[in-house]
Amino acid sequence: MKKISKKNCYQIVSNFTFCGAILAVLNKEIIFGYTLIILGYCLLRKSDLEG
Fold first, then answer.
1. Helix (H) or strand (E) holding 39
2. In a domain, 1, yes or no
3. In a domain, 14, yes or no
4. How far apart are CA 24 and CA 19, in angstroms?
5. Residue 23: left if φ>0, alpha if ψ -120 to 50, beta else—which one?
6. How far apart, in whole angstroms, are the C-alpha atoms of residue 48 and residue 19?
7. pLDDT 10s digits, 11-51
8. 40 and 14 in contact (C-beta within 8 Å)?
9. Structural domain count of the chain
10. CB within 10 Å: which end of the chain, N or C, has fewer?
11. Distance of CA 29 to the CA centre of its chain
């Protein structure tokens, strides 16, 4: 079984965060959606720094 590295973990969490952000924006929760987009972007940048 393959181990999940920190970089892969950050990428997976950021993907789920972006999916949640899309759902939040579609449900008219604009502020929460944009907050999740910013959080997902920060996680994605952090995964770039890990690699």
1. helix 30-50
2. no
3. yes
4. 9
5. alpha
6. 20
7. 999 999 999 999 999 999 999 999 999 999 999 998 888 76
8. yes
9. 1
10. N
11. 17
